[in-house]
């Protein structure tokens, strides 16, 4: 207990220092920028991808409002800067950081979108999970001697602990790389419970891993200085360095449109059809991101209550394992896992566990829209429908049967069949990416969700 308390105090002290740092830097920032504001060119003349929902629209409005305030500001200290994703990318490449890999994050979405759209072939790879990204960056360094950037949300720090400690550590293989971390739950900022918990712990986790770090400045000169500091450390210490990215650091950038719609339904449309096919005692475990938010709102619209659903608000990629744990203990209940393609890929090994150990009552549904839709719409490997198939993966893992659907009628037919068949079973629903604007978040806390859900399981 004493050790935990001491670590919490260390984390708190580090957070306080980091929160003060922007004030320390403000004097030099004012001198460097003078009375200017940074104009942002039209970075996407080809248009934009299907919407990123309320959050994206709100951020764009806030950005436009801040630009207006910058023009009207009487004092330089009231001017707020934003990093141009393209200029920051060029600064990275100019310093020899020319390979990019990671898992997209909402705080990094503008930069990730720019890299996705503009990095040369062979210089960018969206990884299955953050640990894979660290391994990819390690392989790149071993083959070229160069430094890579690994981008991730701070919730992915848990996935990198093993390769950081047993691969890149100075006492093991001593492999340098730049960790570019979206700081969800930054102290002093309102966020969801799972992010607030992670945000408070982030500085302490990095310190415990022995990784030096600093917040990324929101203006180009400061950002370039931070990159120089990181480059110097990586070169001299042969070890990872981290930059923490706070919210709304980058100016907006959206992925260009890519072709016409392939499928009649998006994720929410498919989810509604699926939910309407379930029985009153059926159990639902929904994956993180938009899926759980859409499920919650649909239950509200239909006045269904929320006790049947376990909303996996964090723990990306683990919904199917949660479902497996429940199904094994509640063999008389139909257990449906509503998964996403990016989440399923992140911990694909869970499908092997389900296939070899899953009970007859477990029904796994993956809504595949080929994108990390909740954090900016960057593509996932499951987008390549000609060469990638969850159905074949499930069959290879030992699922009793696997189905595919795209239309409303196909979903209804498949769910009806699955409810009458022994599992484990899989249904891959191929859908369009994108979601509606004004999508809210659950109004019940995770603890309330847990209490209601456990009661629902107990009475069945």
From TrEMBL:
Keywords: Decarboxylase, Lyase, Thiamine pyrophosphate. Transmembrane segments: none annotated. Residues 307-429 form the Thiamine pyrophosphate enzyme TPP-binding domain. It holds the Pfam family TPP_enzyme_C. It comes from the Eukaryota. GO terms for molecular function: magnesium ion binding; phosphonopyruvate decarboxylase activity; thiamine pyrophosphate binding. Residues 42-55 have a biased composition (Low complexity). Residues 30-69 are annotated as: Disordered. Residues 89-198 form the Thiamine pyrophosphate enzyme N-terminal TPP-binding domain. This is 2-hydroxyacyl-CoA lyase 2. It comes from Mytilus edulis (Blue mussel).
């Amino acid at each position: 207990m004493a050790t935990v308390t001491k670590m919490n105090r260390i984390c708190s002290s580090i957070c306080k220092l980091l929160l003060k740092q922007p004030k320390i830097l403000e004097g030099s920032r004012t001198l460097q920028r003078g009375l200017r504001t940074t104009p942002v060119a039209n970075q996407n003349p080809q248009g934009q991808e299907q919407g990123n929902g309320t959050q994206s629209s709100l951020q764009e409005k806030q950005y436009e409002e801040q630009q207006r305030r910058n023009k009207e500001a009487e004092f330089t200290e009231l001017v707020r800067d934003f990093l141009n994703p393209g200029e920051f990318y060029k600064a990275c490449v100019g310093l020899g950081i020319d390979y990019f890999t990671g898992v997209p994050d909402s705080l990094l979405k503008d930069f990730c979108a720019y890299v996705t759209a503009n990095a040369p072939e062979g210089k960018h790879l969206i990884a299955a999970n953050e640990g894979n990204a660290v391994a990819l960056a390690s392989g790149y360094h071993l083959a070229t001697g160069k430094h890579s950037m690994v981008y991730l949300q701070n919730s992915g720090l848990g996935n990198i602990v093993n390769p950081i400690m047993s691969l890149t550590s100075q006492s093991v293989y001593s492999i340098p790389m730049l960790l570019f971390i979206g700081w969800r739950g930054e102290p002093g900022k309102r966020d969801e419970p799972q992010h607030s918990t992670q945000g408070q712990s982030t500085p302490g986790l990095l310190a415990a891993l022995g990784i030096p770090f600093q917040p990324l400045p929101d203006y180009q000169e400061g950002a370039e200085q931070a990159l120089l500091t990181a480059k110097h450390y990586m070169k001299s210490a042969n070890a990872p360095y981290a930059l923490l990215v706070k919210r709304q650091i980058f100016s907006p950038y959206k992925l260009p449109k890519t072709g016409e719609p392939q499928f009649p339904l998006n994720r929410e449309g498919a989810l509604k059809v699926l939910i309407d096919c379930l029985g009153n005692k059926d159990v639902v475990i929904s994956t993180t991101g938009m899926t759980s938010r859409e499920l919650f709102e649909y239950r509200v619209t239909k006045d269904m209550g929320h006790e049947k659903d376990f909303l996996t608000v964090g723990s990306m990629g683990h919904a199917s394992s949660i479902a497996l744990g429940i199904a094994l203990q509640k063999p008389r209940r139909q257990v449906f896992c509503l998964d996403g393609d990016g989440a399923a890929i992140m911990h694909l090994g869970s499908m092997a566990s389900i296939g070899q150990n899953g009970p007859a009552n477990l029904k796994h549904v993956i809504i595949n829209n080929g994108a990390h839709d909740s954090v900016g719409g960057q593509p996932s490997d499951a987008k390549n429908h000609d060469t990638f198939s969850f159905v074949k993966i499930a069959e290879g893992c030992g699922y009793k049967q696997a189905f595919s659907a795209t239309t409303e009628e196909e979903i209804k037919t498949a769910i009806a069949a699955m409810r009458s068949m022994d599992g484990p079973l899989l249904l891959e629903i191929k859908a369009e990416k994108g979601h509606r604007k004004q999508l809210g978040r659950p109004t019940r806390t995770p603890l309330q969700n847990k209490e209601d859900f456990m009661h629902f399981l107990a009475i069945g």
